[in-house]
């Protein structure tokens, strides 16, 4: 049975999660893909204010398709996380968790361990399922990036799997986990 968790108190429960566990995540989640990560990293490096607080936040590596009439957003599937592996400083500046698909490099795994952060995977190819769990979606930064702009989402019971826990145990090296 999946644990129901809220982003409001992520630091309270993050270290209790174990690789392979299923969760249902509710609360505020921000989107950022490669272009947004590059901009966020530059802001950090230059000591400039960020468009959202990294400390205790969750980033979903995703971009939406256009919303159909009457919907909060379109399909919202995960992006390959390895494209964000060059930005461990987001975790070093307080990012509590990231959501994407695929494995992560050693630099990111080390950052997760160092910062007691978590990496979740969403089901690739199931962007329509993710969209059904989004109850609010607002663009908050970098509108010039189009679908890669940073958005503030509010999820309700978004199904995820702990891919790398805060001890560095990794679903991709651990072996197959029955879901």
Model description:
The chain is α/β, with parallel strands linked by helices and 179 residues long. It has a single domain, classed as Fe-S hydro-lyase, tartrate dehydratase beta-type, catalytic domain (fumarase), CATH 3.20.130. It is 22% helix and 27% strand. The protein has 6 helices and 7 strands. A 5-stranded mixed barrel has the order 2-3-4-5-7. The longest helix is centred in the N-terminal third of the chain and has 12 residues, at 34-45. The model has no long low-confidence stretch (mean pLDDT 92).
Secondary structure: elements and pairs:
Blueprint: E1 3-6, H1 10-13, E2 22-31, H2 34-45, E3 58-60, H3 89-92, E4 97-100, H4 106-115, E5 118-121, H5 127-132, E6 134-141, E7 150-164, H6 171-174
Parallel strand pairs: 1-2, 2-3, 3-4, 4-5
Antiparallel strand pairs: 2-7, 5-7, 6-7
In short:
This protein is an alpha/beta fold. Helix content is 22%, strand content 27%.
Q: Kindly state the percentage of residues in helix.
A: 10-25%
Query: How many DSSP H or I helices?
Result: 6
Largest sheet: 5 strands, mixed, barrel
Strand content range: 25-35%
What is the H/E order?
EHEHEHEHEHEEH
Round the mean pLDDT to the nearest integer and report it: 92
Shape estimate: globular
Task: Kindly list the characteristics that best describe this protein.
alpha/beta; single chain; 179 residues; fumarase
């Amino acid at each position: 049975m999946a644990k129901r968790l809220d982003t409001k108190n992520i630091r309270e429960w993050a270290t209790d999660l174990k690789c392979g566990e299923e969760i249902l995540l509710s609360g505020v989640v921000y989107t950022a893909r490669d272009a947004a990560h590059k901009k966020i990293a530059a802001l950090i490096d230059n000591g400039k204010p960020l468009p959202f607080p990294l400390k205790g936040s969750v980033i979903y590596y995703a971009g939406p398709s256009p919303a159909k009439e009457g919907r909060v957003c379109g399909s919202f599937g995960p992006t390959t996380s390895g494209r964000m592996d060059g930005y461990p400083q987001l975790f070093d500046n307080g990012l509590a968790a990231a959501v994407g698909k695929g494995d992560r490099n050693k630099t990111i795994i080390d950052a997760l361990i160092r910062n007691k952060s978590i990496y979740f995977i969403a089901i690739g190819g199931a962007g329509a399922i993710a969209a059904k769990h989004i109850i609010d979606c607002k663009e908050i930064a970098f509108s010039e990036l189009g679908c890669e702009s940073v958005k503030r989402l509010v999820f309700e019971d978004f199904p995820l799997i702990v891919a790398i826990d805060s001890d560095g145990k990794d679903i991709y090296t651990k072996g197959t986990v029955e879901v």
